[in-house]
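Q: How would the structure tokens look for this protein?
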Amino acid sequence: MSLVSIIIPYYKKELYLEQSIRSILNQTYQNFEIILINDDPENKIFISKFSKLDHRIKLVHNENNLGAGLSRNKGLEIANGEYIAFCDSDDLWKNNKIEFQIELMKRLNFTFSFTGYDIIDENNNFIKSRKAPSYVDFQKLRSSCDIGLSTVMIRKDIFENVKYRFANLRTKEDYVLWLKLAKDKITMKSIQENLTSWRKSKNSLSSSVIQKIVDGYKVYRIYLKYSRLRSLYHLVILSINFILKN
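A: Here is the predicted structure in token form.
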């Protein structure tokens, strides 16, 4: 039974962290480790209690606030699993997520898989569902980020290449990694089951339109090294597709 390493960066999500962790502890597939990265250095007391919930939880404290992307990179360096999964500290997993996903990945020899997800509000009320696209390549992904971070599972050997890391951005740090993988022809397989609940929070960084626009431009300009004009063009396309999805 393959070990799965689940990386959770934490920053000021006191209301939801325990729910997220328990949704993982309650999985039907139990051979996993949780790498909990505390990115809130001033709040060590609150998060320290979670290492006592289960012996499989490894708690790592950042000395300074690094952001979600760099915190996940730190988790990748200490992960022991054959497969890597990610969960944001306010998202929830359906209890069969790991079992369903890893069985399919092993049987069909997937390197990278992602699933559909439900969208919930701050009180766990269902808002709507979002299906995973049937096919994703670099061109499609460049125009619309349709991969939910907390749905992703990747074989760890992919990360032996050090260029495959999360970007140092406040938002869209995962989008940069997906683009790098897609550009290098790493096949990304979608699973149509909705196995995750993504929390839409009014105060989350992922809900900040201005921050998304700034970071979206950086995705194309800095990480894909496009010209200013080309970066603006793709940012407009990305923004239009985001509006259409919502």
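The mean pLDDT is 95.

Helices lie at 17-25, 44-48, 68-78, 97-108, 138-143, 173-183, 209-223, 228-245.

Upvote if useful.
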